[in-house]
Structures are given as structure tokens and as C-alpha cells.
Design brief:
about 500 residues; alpha+beta; BirA Bifunctional Protein, domain 2; Herpes Virus-1; Rossmann fold; nine-stranded mixed sheet; five-stranded mixed sheet; binds adenosine-5'-triphosphate
Amino acid sequence: MDRAEKIDSIMKRRGFLWRSSEIYGGISGFYDYGHIGTLIKRKFENLWRHFFLGLNPMFFEISPSTIMPEEVFKASGHLEHFTDPIVRCKKCDFVERADQILENILHEKFEGLSKEELNEIIKKHKIRCPKCGGELEEVSEMNLMFPIEIGPFKKVRGYLRPETAQGAYVNFTKEFNALRKRLPIGLAVIGKAFRNEISPRGGVYRLREFTQAELQIFFDPDEINDHEDWESVKDLNMIVLLAGSEDAKEVSCEEMVEDIRLPKFYVYYMASVYKFYTEVLGYPKDSVRFRELSEDEKSFYNKLHWDLEVKLETLGGFKELCGVHYRYDHDLSSHEKMSGESQKVFLNEKKFIPHVIEISFGIDRNIYALIDFFYDERDGKSVLKLPFKVSPFDCAVFPLVKRDGLDERAIEIYKNLSGHFDCYYDDSGSIGRRYARQDEIGTPICITVDYDTLKDNTVTLRDRDTANQIRVKIGDLSATISKIIQRGKF
Ligand code: ATP
């Protein structure tokens, strides 16, 4: 088995995630999380919450509806512009994104080209169906939103939201008032988004139903060239790849402002995202970079658009996990026009529509990335070296054998610990097997109750990453586990 197959096998066997409704064959682009996957997802979301909401006391989470009326997406531009170029084979009906077919055959990027440009390239290179060699139809545009009919008889047209962001925009004025009319404010949403992707692939990398964690930061555009916490990031070095360049380079945030001419307020949030990946999640610096999107590639609503990418072995290189977008006043202005409700604020002695910087994470992609990146092997066995803070369990408790009172003692310890930690209990199979099972799902600490425990009230603690063991007094157990989890290192 290669790395991707091994990871896939663990995900299916051990309760991470798999194709939804698999007993009926499933539909591409829909996945279900099992019990381990759900624990990791919840931990990742909580880490995200604590980190990004912690950036400013005026950043909060809201929970808007996933179904929104058509007007929202007319205003936002999604109805007109949220499309991908699609092409179909005249002979076998095979359907694919036109830019993707070209990319697979010509090994270049064609994202963002118009359907006319794509048609020309298809003609020039005499591209045919990659499945049957048949002739391709002309390229057309397909809107990626899922329309739905709401209510009985006189139906109202709505859409499953393709991004959580619109939920923050339509609630902006209410939150601005509730938050006592100050800026900047941040409205975060962690929730489902839906896109009818033409060809979902790469497991959870491209889904039709997925979870986003997005933060919309509303600010006064006259203050874009400063950030109150600038000093804390100005010397941080990040690896960046400029649009049109082949080589990434390391630059400080100060240089991003001075040389690349990005506004400080924007760079501050790029730096925060970079820190989340390198400091909180612990990705090594050389595996993380920011890529500037070209004019063709940028989403239609963005004035500045940089993607954070992580190098992922099973997906063949650097892949986008998060975007930092300067959406200008695009959304609020459009909602003002469409709804007739003013989105202006009166602040700093002027009336204006706030601008928005958006931090946009795909949670599912990020979880897959963690599993792919931190998958490792020791003596031919799988060890998932996840950062401790996103490991499904903090610790697992085992009795060495299931007799002589060891099991009762182990259960007692498990019960005490499970009030404070995500804790797992296992008494089946050999101790070696139990260690291997925990290594495979990424549990950082295994606690074993053996015959010495009955004599001296100590247990062994085993480190997932080295298999080294130490002996700890039961009275010190909670404090020791807390320290290890906090430190992120055994
Ligand atoms: P891509 O270029 O991969 O289609 P995008 O640039 O359209 O993504 P955005 O619209 O900026 O993505 O969405 C923000 C984030 O949501 C992305 O960085 C990604 O992590 C996640 N995301 C977007 N589309 C999907 C999808 N189909 N499946 C899973 N996650 C997604």
C-alpha cells in the first residue's frame, strides 16, 4: 500500500471519515465523519475559535442560517459569477471542469480563463475526451450553487449558502449596533457551505458539502495602513510566492508592506494565519507558504487574495487550505443597493460603508491535511503524530491484564481522568496491540496500570512519538498530562 492508501485505510477502519451513504454507493463530494473524525473536527474548530476570536475582544461568533433567499446571492454576485467552466464529451457523456481537463493534459494552470479562451485552447491543442477519445462539446458555464424551493405551493427560491460569509454581511448592521457601534468588529461563522462542484476529487479536499470557518473583519478603510498590534508581527518571516513568480521567498511582514506594498491591516491577518499554521498547529515553516493569486485566479469579489498553502505528499505538492481576502466594500455595498437598507455607519466623524478582510478556512481540507502531513511509521507500524491539541483523545488508560484487580484500578483512574481530559479506555487484546491502535489514531499518551501500581500507586506513561515510557504517581497524573498536552511534547 502507498501512503495515500494506508491513510485511507486508517480513516475507514478507525472511525475517521468516509463516503456518505456508502451502503448505497454514496454520491461524490459527500462525506460522513465517524467518532474519531468528529472528535478531531471539534478540536480543530475549538482551536480555531480560541485563536482567531482571541485576536481582538470585538471578534465574536454568530450562527446564521444555511439557507438564504435568492436576493442575497443576486446582491453578492454569486448568481452571476459563481460559475466554473464545464465541458462534456459528445460520445460518452463524461463531464469535467474545462480548465481541469486542460491542466491534466497540458500540465499548466488554466484556472480563471473565460469559456472563449478555454474553447480556443481546446481547439488549438485538439483536446479530446480523456476517457473515450470522443469529441468535446463547447465549454459552457455552470453555477455552483444548490437552488432549493422553499415552502408549499407558492414556492420561494432560495439557495444553500456557498460560503458562510454572506450570513455575516446580512447581519452586519444588527451586530454593529449590538456591539455599541465600534470598529473593527469581527463576525465569525463556523458551519456548512455547499457547492455543486463539477468533479469532486481528492477525498475531502473538494466536497459538495463542507464546513468552513470564516472570519469577516469589518473596519474603517482610512485605517487600513495600520494595525494596533503591528509590532507583534512586523519581524515575522513568512514564505511567499508572488503571482507570476516560480520561486517562493522568505520575507518579513515589514517587507510585505514596504516592498510588496500590501496594507498593514491586511498583512497583520496574513501573519495571524501563518502563526496559526506554524505555531499553533506546528507545521514546519518550509511546508507552509502564502501564494498571491493572479488577476485571473482571484475570486470575483476580492481586491487582494492570498492563499495559504501546505505541502501535502498524497495530494502532490502545495495545496490551498485557507484564503485571506480583501473584499473591499463589495458585499455591504451590494446588499445596501439590493435591500434598500443602509449599511453605512457613522463613526470617526464620517459616514461610510466599512471594508472587510476575510479569513476563510475549509475545515475538512485542514483535517485531511493534518492527517496526511503528520502520518508517520515506526517499525513498519502507523503512527499519526497529530499536534496534541487536535488528537482525538488526550490519553488512553489500559490495565496490563484484565484480572487481579488491575482492571478495577484502571477503570477508577479512567473515570477520574475523563472528567478533565478526552480519555479512552481499552482492555481488549495484547498491550502491544492496544498501543498500536492508539498510535494509529494519534493518542499522545497511553497510561498502563500494572502489578507495580497495586504496590506503589504509580502507572506508566508512554509517549506516542518515541514509545518511551516514564513512571508517574497516580496523584500527579492529572498535572503531568495537562503539562504534556499544553507543551505539545511528551
Ligand atoms: P478552490 O480554488 O480550491 O476551489 P476557492 O478558492 O474557491 O477554493 P474559497 O471560495 O476561497 O475557495 O473558499 C474558502 C475556503 O473554503 C478554501 O480555502 C477551502 O479551504 C475551502 N473550500 C472551498 N471549496 C471547497 C470544497 N469544494 N471542498 C472543501 N473545502 C472547500
